[in-house]
Amino acid sequence: MKYLKTTKIAALAVLLLTILSCSTEPVIGSTVTYFPEITLNGASTVFVPLGSTYNDPGVTATVNGATVEYTSTAIGVNRKSPKLDTSIQDEYIQTYKAINADGFANTVTRKVIVYKTGDLVNSIEGVYTSTVARNGSTPSAAYRNMEYIYIWKNTDGTYEISDAFGGWYSIGRAIAGSNTPGGKINAVNISTNTFTFPGNPMTNDYFGFPANLLSLTVNPTTKTLVLSCDWNTGTAYVFVSTLTQVQL
């Protein structure tokens, strides 16, 4: 009987401890968070004439169906303006951002292209599609009619191209940060295709190695430019870019 009584007492003690243990555990609640949803108003690519006003179409931002505020920032892809400046020709990436009450964010982007279209008699400024051959070969459709290559005019009177390789790596292969910038063009006489290239030598941003613009031929009738650039990585490459001006 004594053994049975002891066993009952031990069992009651264990039960009491179990109850106390359960009663001291915290109550864990759950919450539902709704992430922001953002939809672009208007086109995903907008063309804005140089010097004009950009009328931002904005976005529609909601959280669980309710409209919320959003912010907008922009940066110039090639000329690195920290804001969308319609006095500077460039491609801008405009980023819209909305945040919910729990601090979760969502973003969408729009491409804004500030442009000036030269007549290819007095000016070669413009937005261009590009078809590129490297060492005489254009291996696939990825290297044809690529969008976009830009030529703008600098304050010193020279022109400059956004990628001296015509977008071979940056657009054709979609390798981020693989432009070859700094391709300055001094137009001695556009009508006689007399140009010098004061930006030589340049360097590819991704792979390195020196590159040099070799020649430029302008055809105002067909609205095309043919630009040649060499690149020596230990292997010699020549990129020939046929640039077709977009008529905006």
TrEMBL record:
Key words of the record: Signal
UniProt keyword Glycoprotein, yes or no: no
Secretion signal, residue range per the UniProt entry: 1-24
Annotated Gene3D superfamilies: Immunoglobulins (2.60.40.10)
All copies of domain Pesticidal crystal protein Cry22Aa Ig-like, residue ranges: 38-114
InterPro entries: Cry22Aa_Ig-like, Ig-like_fold
Source taxon at top rank: Bacteria
Pfam family of the protein (one): Bact_surface_Ig-like
Keyword presence, Lipid metabolism: no
Name recorded for this polypeptide: Pesticidal crystal protein Cry22Aa Ig-like domain-containing protein
Organism: Flavobacterium degerlachei
Source lineage: Bacteria, Pseudomonadati, Bacteroidota, Flavobacteriia, Flavobacteriales
